[in-house]
């Protein structure tokens, strides 16, 4: 029997029991901890002698450190979130695009022409306030106030998302 096999024979069950307690009874996780502990012991086999200190205490300390490292790494990772229902990679179909255009078009009709043209320049032509002001030949402050007022009207006129899904 090799020195490593003797080490496993002498301390294996105690190490697994200790790892099980550290992992609160999670047997699979405890086995992973023990396996990692044995790997580290195998790498340091030349130092695994009683004249250098308690081998069992060294094994227990290594197992403890592995569990602490796992705990810390789990806390450092972001929390997992549930995937939304349905296919998150689905692309809206042509019918959805038509519906969106009809809804947006009818809601934009509720705006005064000056506000509508400002919203179109800022959001649909993707211009900055300064760029829209230059195209519309108005001051930048006028563009900002028109957009603000237009968005207030649009929020009031736009149907709720649940109403859009039901349509």
From TrEMBL:
It comes from the Bacteria. The keyword ATP-binding does not apply. Signal peptide: none annotated. Pfam families: Sigma70_r2, Sigma70_r4. Residues 7-76, 107-156 form the RNA polymerase sigma-70 region domain. InterPro entries: RNA_pol_sigma-70-like, RNA_pol_sigma-70_dom, RNA_pol_sigma70_r2, RNA_pol_sigma70_r4, RNA_pol_sigma_r2, RNA_pol_sigma_r3/r4-like, WH-like_DNA-bd_sf. The keyword DNA-binding applies. Keywords: DNA-binding, Sigma factor, Transcription, Transcription regulation. Belongs to the sigma-70 factor family. ECF subfamily. This is RNA polymerase.
